[in-house]
Amino acid sequence: xxxxxxxxxxxxxxxxxxxxxxxxxxxxxxxxxxxxxxxxxxxxxxxxxxxxxxxxxxxxxxxxxxxxxxxxxxxxxxxxxxxxxxxxxxxxxxxxxxxxxxxxxxxxxxxxxxxxxxxxxxxxxxxxxxxxxxxxxxxxxxxxxxxxxxxxxxxxxxxxxxxxxxxxxxxxxxxxxxxxxxxxxxxxxxxxxxxxxxxxxxxxxxxxxxxxxxxxxxxxxxxxxxxxxxxxxxxxxxxxxxxxxxxxxxxxxxxxxxxxxxxxxxxxxxxxxxxxxxxxxxxxxxxxxxxxxxxxxxxxxxxxxxxxxxxxxxxxxxxxxxxxxxxxxxxxxxxxxxxxxxxxxxxxxxxxxxxxxxxxxxxxxxxxxxxxxxxxxxxxxxxxxxxxxxxxxxxxxxxxxxxxxxxxxxxxxxxxxxxxxxxxxxxxxxxxxxxxxxxxxxxxxxxxxxxxxxxxxxxxxxxxxxxxxxxxxxxxxxxxxxxxxxxxxxxxxxxxxxxxxxxxxxxxxxxxxxxxxxxxxxxxxxxxxxxxxxxxxxxxxxxxxxxxxxxxxxxxxxxxxxxxxxxxxxxxxxxxxxxxxxxxxxxxxxxxxxxxxxxxxxxxxxxxxxxxxxxxxxxxxxxxxxxxxxxxxxxxxxxxxxxxxxxxxxxxxxxxxxxxxxxxxxxxxxxxxxxxxxxxxxxxxxxxxxxxxxxxxxxxxxxxxxxxxxxxxxxxxxxxxxxxxxxxxxxxxxxxxxxxxxxxxxxxxxxxxx
Length: 754
What we know:
- Helices cover 6% and strands 55% of the residues.
- It is mainly β.
- It folds into two domains: 31-115, Immunoglobulins (Immunoglobulin-like), CATH 2.60.40.10; 125-666 and 686-753, TonB-dependent receptor, beta-barrel domain (Maltoporin, Chain A), CATH 2.40.170.20.
- Mean pLDDT is 86; it is low at 1-11, 17-30 and 120-127.
């Protein structure tokens, strides 16, 4: 339990402040405002981050706002009169138009802005820096960010990008599992167009369900996330996939030794509706004997389709479907076979209502994950989870205060057959019915913005009602975003968990089930950060964090290296800090990120008393990477782009073997001890007392862009692990074998864009 003055504020302040807001300020206070949606004139995509300002009769700045991820802007508290409206964005022609603001409470102005053909070659490198602009754990990710990371394909990918960020740990270049600031993969929430996708990262660690070509934007919260997100205790990745081109039919195709991809898009009814489709399929299973000199028995694929409809009033509705499939071995010689499949189908609408102060976002759909494992050491294991969800989100302005609130309904079916691996029923089906709501306000007070809020979740069985108060805070002491202090504190809970045996890094199997013993995982986040513009193009951010987690399900420690173990609950403490430097000019970009993390679990188990004489043990889990350093550089010279990425991480904890013995079975009669020595077993030492060697790797690439009329060709050559560092993936204590990550891996790719 958390008993402190800070905790009291976390529980009491958010709800009290919001209730006071509605008592003091009339919700329907009349005011003159201008709002609208800004889109790209070429493809109809909403333009996020465009600056929309009103200039008075003397061309002096009067009011302004920036567009959100839907291209929506709102300028309030306007005195009726004649103004000049200016819309500007990097890489686009500035649009200026005279506008008459009447005494009507609200006026709508939608606009389409055109790309500046003279700046097309510079758009990528002049987009405002993102990686070093972190606000209390939150970072906005754009396709440009993905382009900067060396990825062995013709385009960037979210998986490769996240792994260069401080605080994000990947145990290797395969397996599809990411650990964010001490959290496990099952504690991360991933959303695609508002719907859950349970295992979006592919078995080959460079790739995910979110490639550069399909990404519109993403919000990544390493902690301290907003009240609209619930159900997870570690992090949130909220991805919005882009709509198809509303005006022109276009497409692209690419091929590399790792991946083949085809993308097609175009209008259904020009200017009003569009579609986009993508098909991706891995090639490494077929090309690895030639390019890597060894077989890599892994395969992944994905298919995506989205249809979007625009209405004259700015309402945007879409329907989408995604399917992914992964299979393969993490240990290429003797390991288990793993597979998982995602299916996500749904749709939603964003709508500007007739009420000038309301903006509504609605989505509904179904998400399904099935996964399994089978092979040399285990019988077949399987698990699946299906979620039916409906969400309604409302953004409402009360003068200059934005209030966000919403409700959600979800039903989950959890099915698992795990052959008593964790001494649980070998097969079972659970159904969870949940309701949720949230409310949050953004309250500007001069250079300070307060964002108190509370999320509520209710389950008909097991967990009952849970309240999760949260508070986010920003302060710009000099009135600009050149310097900003930010903080967040919040309470989070999780009703389902993905059970796996993290003692074995060579496992990618998760058995999804309700939290054991009817005890939800709970966490308390504290974040404190500062970001500073040091010079033109040079940005610095520093952020410290602490997470306190309770009711973590962990496998019971045993001296015997076997999988027939029980579950226990543990508490966790996570401390850490991120430092990020980012520098960019028209032709040069560089990023350096350092992350420090300290993770400790505490668990009480009977076996600890028997072996160590103490019932409680504290240990660092398998994803406790103490130091992490990442750097990347991109240089544009004429039609060439040169990219270099380097990663370094200190060793990860593992459980060392202490010795061996032989097991004799008596269930089939007395064994002949003279003729049989029994089954050899590995005897394990204290949990996670060892550390693997330091990991480091350099990836390089060079890309040339050729233009032939309306067709663009991109040719790329690159190397993964360019200096052929032998990096450990994991050590198999059963067979006394070392399994390494990818060796030196040259590749080439070609991409055609029509």
